Amino acid sequence: xxxxxxxxxxxxxxxxxxxxxxxxxxxxxxxxxxxxxxxxxxxxxxxxxxxxxxxxxxxxxxxxxxxxxxxxxxxxxxxxxxxxxxxxxxxxxxxxxxxxxxxxxxxxxxxxxxxxxxxxxxxxxxxxxxxxxxxxxxxxxxxxxxxxxxxxxxxxxxxxxxxxxxxxxxxxxxxxxxxxxxxxxxxxxxxxxxxxxxxxxxxxxxxxxxxxxxxxxxxxxxxxxxxxxxxxxxxxxxxxxxxxxxxxxxxxxxxxxxxxxxxxxxxxxxxxxxxxxxxxxxxxxxxxxxxxxxxxxxxxxxxxxxxxxxxxxxxxxxxxxxxxxxxxxxxxxxxxxxxxxxxxxxxxxxxxxxxxxxx
Length: 359
Known about the structure:
alpha/beta
């Protein structure tokens, strides 16, 4: 569990079986074939995302083992293809959960043409456990190096540290995108369900974007102090406050839910929205699909889903972070201890994002 990773550019922490319980092994894998549209990154930091755990245990769908997870990658560009623009060798760059889309190469794609590559109508290629357009398999950032199509390599602003930038590439962007698309800012009252690796970004961003009121919603009182420090104006503990749904009825314009379970009081959450309000689900449960209950039909409520951020949204998010001095709550862990970090995260010990660091 504590072995020291070697310097092999084609090696990383690889899972070969359906388990998230610290059983990855350090071994070689075959990166995608080099194309002149690619960038090779020497990884310095890689955030641990909840998606990594879902994938390691084949929670959402069967994982194509062997698999090297990690899609919050930051490092130095050490090789840049001749067809890549805006990135030079030596630049500090990052990669989020998506590493490729059609970009119009397979015919018309309104999504890619309009800067919504994360909703590509042809095929979204994940940074790991996916297949590139050239047919090669994608491997993630629990490793020394990563190869990615240059369109999805994002330059990191100097004002943001690598440890802070890493978890923003997926976790941060996943919250920034629905807040932006739903007009978070002055005049909006925003609720964030789940104060964890995703939800804590929602509190930080909603406050920085100028929302009139930011409400943290969790089950227990244990995260109240942290939530208030992150910018929440109000904290609701649904297990500890019997009348929370009644007291706070119709008080919010927008709710973003990060909960990855269908076992939540969905109707009561919808009751927190004013007429015409929006509920956005970003957490992806393993235990089935969510549904639109009758209550949403009674008050013109809008139910939405939201995926990871597009490259331009990630750049916008970084600009906001740099301008407002936003600092996510991260804990740095040596890459050699990745297995233990996965176990600890599964046990809920992260406060609030783990970031793996190559020595």
